[in-house]
Amino acid sequence: MRSAGQTGRLAAWQTGRLFRKATRSALDAVQDVLRAEVLQGNGELVREFLVGKALPVARALLLERMAARLLLRLGLRGALASNVVGWVLPLVVEQLLKAGHKSGLFEKVGQHATVQDTLRRLDELRAATWKRLAPDHGTGAQWLPNDHEPPAQLSA
User: Fold this and answer.
1) DSSP symbol at 146
2) Alpha-carbon 98 to chain mean position
3) 104: DSSP letter
4) Which residues are CB-contacts of 105 (< 8 A; sequence separation ≥ 6)?
5) What pTM does this model have?
6) Which residue from 26, 138, 139 is spatially nearest to 81, judged by alpha carbons?
7) Per-residue pLDDT tens for 35-87?
8) Helix axis angle, 43-51 relative to 78-103, nearest 10°?
9) Which of 65, 94, 119, 140 is the 20 to 30 A CA-CA neighbour of 40?
10) How far is C-alpha 27 from the geometric centre of its chain's CA atoms?
11) CA dist., res. 132 & res. 105, Å (int)
């Protein structure tokens, strides 16, 4: 009886790990879409999206592309995938915008810049957003950007 009740619950470290994985996937999806738009010559659209001046149709199109990319990254299907994307993507985009406003990055991005400069600024924005989503509480430990899985948890 006790084991049946425990199977539906996750330990705190497991939910934290799942949250980090979902938010990292969402941040990567957002970054991929924004970088692709800059490389296609739509740097002004990306700037307007980040500053909040994009037309509703353009904003919806970018968000739709981000959601589709996130669905592919998560590898989930059906209602579960829709629910996860529905709560994690807005959270990540909100934190991305907050990080950009707080760091003053949007003023730098708002200036007419080269493609390489805009891509570098997007990388800075990604790093600042990740610090907001998964803060390092003074330990100094970091994951490298190409690490997709967190380290294995130690047993109690």
Assistant:
1) T
2) 12
3) T
4) 99, 121, 124, 125, 128
5) 0.70
6) 26
7) 998 889 888 888 888 877 778 888 888 888 998 888 888 877 777 777 888 88
8) 80
9) 94
10) 2
11) 15
